[in-house]
Amino acid sequence: MSKVGLIPFTIQTIVKDTNVIPPGIELIGAPAAWEHGFKGDGIVIAVLDTGCDSNHAELKNQIIDGYNFTTDDHGDPKKFIDYNGHGTHVCGTICAEENDEGVIGVAPNAKVLVLKVLAGQGYGDTKWVIEGIRYATNWRGPNGERVRVISMSLGGKDNNPDLHQAIKEAVDQHILVVCAAGNDGDGKNETDEHAYPGAYPEVVQVGAVNLQKEISEFSNTNKEIDLVAPGEDILSTYLNNKFAVLSGTSMATPHVSAAAALIIQQCEKEFERLLTEPEIYAQLIKRTVSLEYSRRFQGNGILNLASGIISPTQNHHTAAAN
Question: Which of 54, 56, 82, 86 is catalytic?
């Protein structure tokens, strides 16, 4: 069986208390979207990872549902407990609650569907990931909610046709699939590094920059990179009601997944209809700013939500970009 795992990441510090907007979330312009009322209301993001600490004060109200596909807890499907910390950190960047304490996520009013596809040590069977993607595609919430974004900060060396097919099926259902590029980069744009599912053309492949908007040395480079987001010194939720600063393309990915929720909310209000997956992608790429790097490093550039904010007072008659 092919294996997937956490894309290696670095834990820098673990802290008990904090009360800030994390700098990565500031960097992508999320507060500008919040000021216009876009906080991800009604949007569900499926997070395929190591599970989530559902008792964390910042996350306990943010989880709409969950499922365990791993052998942890004797394979009990209802126990999507995070024994690693990675999944909890990713969930916090996406939707940590706005409650004047701790941290706040990019889309604080969005909900997460926690799909545990990696066991506590950070590894999983590719079959679990495939099952997780299909579960997310077919999932319906208590009020008929559907998953709009799938976020995967994981990867492996194997190009698995069944994994690729599951992703294509999700995209056909107009779900945006966002994946980490991987941390095997060597800082050279002439050498390609690939991790799957990130390297599939159907996904949004996210590379990492530091808080000074410089490409992270570890970030994979290849022709399929779509954009970059903050992936170094990222502060978010962690196990046991704590917070941690982590680095990796794993940390860049949830910034983009959650930004997509804000974009979907904004554009569907403006266009008064549901967006297709190609339209969501086009609107995401419209909100990038090119950096002075090769496209193999940066794709279309760094995510900047502030570049696509539409004031409610403006009268727009534009159709969604295709």
Answer: 86
The pLDDT of residue 166 is: 98
Q: Is 311 a catalytic residue?
A: no
| CB atoms closer than 10 angstroms to residue 169 | 14
Helix, strand, coil in percent for the chain, rounding step 5: 30, 25, 50
pLDDT score recorded for residue 322: 34
| Entry pTM | 0.92
Instruction: Name which of 246, 228, 154, 169 is nearest 202 in CA terms.
Output: 169
Ranges under pLDDT 70 in the chain: 1, 7-10, 183-186, 188-191, 296, 308-322
86 is catalytic: yes
Catalytic site residue from 151, 216, 236, 250:
250
Domains of the chain: 10-308 (3.40.50.200)
- What was the pLDDT predicted at 315? 33
Q: Is 85 left (phi over 0), alpha (psi -120 to 50) or beta?
A: left
- Looking at residue 295, the DSSP 8-state letter turns out to be H
Query: Annotated catalytic, 54?
Result: no
Q: Left (φ > 0), alpha (ψ -120 to 50) or beta: where does 124 sit?
A: beta
Burial class (CB in 10 A: 0-12, 13-18, 19+), 315: exposed
Q: Which of 49, 53, 72, 82 is catalytic?
A: 49
Helix (H, G, I), strand (E, B) or coil at 11: strand
Query: Using the 8-state DSSP alphabet, how is residue 321 labeled?
Result: P
Which residue type is seen at 170?
Answer: A
Q: How far apart are CA 303 and CA 260, in angstroms?
A: 10
